[in-house]
């Protein structure tokens, strides 16, 4: 079977470096180029006959990069945050025009995405819930983006507690309480590698999607 | 709207007592009779125009009770364990003949059932998993029935660890490990009341099922 | 060996009922009377040659009861809250005069007391800490008394998070963070019986104390 | 105040590299040399007027290194495992002769050492306990050395459960069960840096010890 031809854009960034390593460890995909700021992305896609481009760059470049990828008729896996609903709509139309797909995912950790998906489902049966998120003391913002997204998916006003301590990395617990019982869903992430299985899955599945898809949970 | 007419069979047992209390606390259902060993169940169903019968009795009586309920043209919610696959098949045919439904559920704790459902789903993306179940020191059998059922639903050979200590009631943790991350799903049960929301849900939904259904997870 | 002669005062209250049961299950102590509001406590102590009186009554009665017990020359185990520092001083003098002992303990759960003791010790080596306390949704006050006492013993301004959900009873976690590691001390209490081992220990050890002692941790 | 003059022996190993970094980040100590296999350790100690030598080498070199350090009249902090009780005795005599101290510690993670210390204390009041240790799937031996040491310090036959999954690093939970309650002490370690606060503490305190001391817990 032919290997999936992949480009990593933002290949020198922290996520890019991990993505390059992860792709090279897979048998069914081939890294045909790695690009960064200053490279002509469109040209690289066309010259290398890339089928999928993974983008881990910066918020302000996300939309421009996605447009270039789709216009060059490659499917896009966008891990960069910062796209508005309007941007997503625009990308959806562009996908239709060029007959490629685009997956935009703010979180590629399979475990975190499953946690959010299960939380959204559990809340229907056990409506009383609270979230505790635990991060290293250098994370100054609270609550975390994942906690906000989880509460949003649960479609409720869920209390969120933020613990900040050295020795922690990134952890979250969603606790549901019902009569005589509790259900707890917890995700612990200890490093950036935890995002790679999600990225690899996205590269593998993107051809089977239909146009623009938002959230890794849609392909699980 | 007319209330659902319910009979609790095994009303003097520990689960029966809780079920009677739980039904009486709901607005959309009415306890039309409560029965036990020695009562003529068929007669009670017919005389009281019962629509649903909840059975919490003993394994050896489960099949006989279920047949009486269905033959009297009431839908059956069977919480009693001990039914074989063959028994379930027989009940399925009987349901078709009498145009009623039957839900057989070995565990009515919504949280436990969600835990099992999520575990079965998570294992597809994070295939490395172990189960730890924690029970009071008087529970002599190990592993617990819920742990065995969870592993069975995960369709894998999952290592199970059994902790037995005073001060514990009934708890289970399913831990999934992936690169750089873990996902943990935990259920804590502190008393029999934890089963009631599941029983109430079953009473409410049984009319909408089709014939015989096995497992509370099917109606969540 | 002669059994310790014990009276339970407040024997009809929730804690009193458990204490009566617990004492009767021990071989080295004897329940010589159980008293309540309306009984002449001093007379009961003297007539029954009681050596130890356990008091679980109401805050406003705590000081009066303690004085009666000590003046009747029995040692006092006071589980009732509401004594001020001044009250404790007064009781200390009274103990000296009558040559008996008095243990005042706001929390008799051995596990909770150990948690507080360990937290106070751990904070010396791992100074970054946060407390999460989990209680049933009917507990309206937050943070819990145990959380406040724990933070006080740690002699720090420790952030406290309060989770309130059905299905919870009384639980607390103290998390310490250091470089690359965390230490967590957690206590889970599921019922009133959890206080009994502490009460029994107090009855057994009170003869060996010196005058007034505050806190179960002093006799562990 | 004069800085403590320190040598790291085994400075190119994983632990050695971290130790060198940790010492350089402290204001009250100075790294006067770093040595490895092939260096003349005795000469380096004497020439650099080292007061403390930290040894992280290999089991078969531990005794020889410790003897050289003590004979050169520096205090020794030995993190290398492999010393027998007889070896420790011999080092104790050598310390007395040369009027220096030696701390031998198989685990320098302050949190892990506190966990063991608290477990040894808690078991006196809550004698029913079990240990669960969680490690990455590449750790083939089970149970872990820390779990064995914890059980040994608890002076009991404690059941140990070993969980091995990707995404885990090194974690341990000691659960104590009593009537109606449980107490859990858990340590999570995510990297080698977690050992450094313990090493730094040892360097700082070793001058105040008396001869040979075994276990970081003795100086906490």
Automatic annotation (TrEMBL), chains A, B, C, D:
<dbReference type="InterPro" id="IPR000846">
    <property type="entry name" value="DapB_N"/>
</dbReference>
<dbReference type="GO" id="GO:0009089">
    <property type="term" value="P:lysine biosynthetic process via diaminopimelate"/>
</dbReference>
<dbReference type="GO" id="GO:0008839">
    <property type="term" value="F:4-hydroxy-tetrahydrodipicolinate reductase"/>
</dbReference>
<feature type="binding site">
    <location>
        <begin position="145"/>
        <end position="146"/>
    </location>
    <ligand>
        <name>(S)-2,3,4,5-tetrahydrodipicolinate</name>
    </ligand>
</feature>
<keyword id="KW-0521">NADP</keyword>
<feature type="domain" description="Dihydrodipicolinate reductase N-terminal">
    <location>
        <begin position="4"/>
        <end position="108"/>
    </location>
</feature>
<dbReference type="InterPro" id="IPR036291">
    <property type="entry name" value="NAD(P)-bd_dom_sf"/>
</dbReference>
<dbReference type="Pfam" id="PF01113">
    <property type="entry name" value="DapB_N"/>
</dbReference>
<feature type="binding site">
    <location>
        <begin position="10"/>
        <end position="15"/>
    </location>
    <ligand>
        <name>NAD(+)</name>
    </ligand>
</feature>
<keyword id="KW-0028">Amino-acid biosynthesis</keyword>
<feature type="binding site">
    <location>
        <begin position="79"/>
        <end position="81"/>
    </location>
    <ligand>
        <name>NAD(+)</name>
    </ligand>
</feature>
<feature type="active site" description="Proton donor/acceptor">
    <location>
        <position position="135"/>
    </location>
</feature>
<comment type="function">
    <text>Catalyzes the conversion of 4-hydroxy-tetrahydrodipicolinate (HTPA) to tetrahydrodipicolinate.</text>
</comment>
<dbReference type="GO" id="GO:0005829">
    <property type="term" value="C:cytosol"/>
</dbReference>
<dbReference type="InterPro" id="IPR022663">
    <property type="entry name" value="DapB_C"/>
</dbReference>
<keyword id="KW-0560">Oxidoreductase</keyword>
<keyword id="KW-0220">Diaminopimelate biosynthesis</keyword>
<feature type="binding site">
    <location>
        <begin position="105"/>
        <end position="108"/>
    </location>
    <ligand>
        <name>NAD(+)</name>
    </ligand>
</feature>
<dbReference type="Pfam" id="PF05173">
    <property type="entry name" value="DapB_C"/>
</dbReference>
<feature type="active site" description="Proton donor">
    <location>
        <position position="139"/>
    </location>
</feature>
<dbReference type="GO" id="GO:0019877">
    <property type="term" value="P:diaminopimelate biosynthetic process"/>
</dbReference>
<dbReference type="InterPro" id="IPR023940">
    <property type="entry name" value="DHDPR_bac"/>
</dbReference>
<protein>
    <recommendedName>
        <fullName>4-hydroxy-tetrahydrodipicolinate reductase</fullName>
        <ecNumber>1.17.1.8</ecNumber>
    </recommendedName>
</protein>
<comment type="similarity">
    <text>Belongs to the DapB family.</text>
</comment>
<keyword id="KW-0520">NAD</keyword>
<keyword id="KW-0457">Lysine biosynthesis</keyword>
<keyword id="KW-0963">Cytoplasm</keyword>
<dbReference type="InterPro" id="IPR022664">
    <property type="entry name" value="DapB_N_CS"/>
</dbReference>
<dbReference type="GO" id="GO:0016726">
    <property type="term" value="F:oxidoreductase activity, acting on CH or CH2 groups, NAD or NADP as acceptor"/>
</dbReference>
<comment type="subunit">
    <text>Homotetramer.</text>
</comment>
<feature type="binding site">
    <location>
        <position position="136"/>
    </location>
    <ligand>
        <name>(S)-2,3,4,5-tetrahydrodipicolinate</name>
    </ligand>
</feature>
<comment type="pathway">
    <text>Amino-acid biosynthesis; L-lysine biosynthesis via DAP pathway; (S)-tetrahydrodipicolinate from L-aspartate: step 4/4.</text>
</comment>
<feature type="domain" description="Dihydrodipicolinate reductase C-terminal">
    <location>
        <begin position="111"/>
        <end position="220"/>
    </location>
</feature>
<dbReference type="GO" id="GO:0050661">
    <property type="term" value="F:NADP binding"/>
</dbReference>
<dbReference type="GO" id="GO:0051287">
    <property type="term" value="F:NAD binding"/>
</dbReference>
